[in-house]
Amino acid sequence: MFPDTSDGEIASECEYDSVFNHLEELRLHLEQEMGFEKFFEVYEKVKAIHEDEDENIEICSTIVQNILGSEHQHLYAKILHLVMADGAYQEGKISSDAFVF
């Protein structure tokens, strides 16, 4: 379903595209700063942590921090934000697309 906008109207597909574009810009920035392989490794690890409720978040967070190293530890919050936003975007997109024929 599309979220309500401030004036009570239903958000358009363009607003979802805007969210997607913002997420892709963030992803590109992180890839450029860290390198694709390191970014992808950390992104996938953070994603796995959030998908698996049985994972020990502290231990996994330490593993992610070790992968990032001191040079990129400051990017952890941005990567976490991206993982969570991607999940929310995909969840919203899937549920709204389910009604498109």
UniProtKB/TrEMBL annotation:
Principal EC category: transferase
EC number: 2.7.11.1
Alphabetized InterPro entries for the sequence: NEK_Ser/Thr_kinase_NIMA
Record-level Gene Ontology MF annotations: ATP binding; protein serine/threonine kinase activity
Catalytic activity, as annotated: L-seryl-[protein] + ATP = O-phospho-L-seryl-[protein] + ADP + H(+); L-threonyl-[protein] + ATP = O-phospho-L-threonyl-[protein] + ADP + H(+)
Keyword entries, A-Z: ATP-binding, Kinase, Nucleotide-binding, Serine/threonine-protein kinase, Transferase
Protein's name in the database: non-specific serine/threonine protein kinase
Gene name of the record: LOC111822861
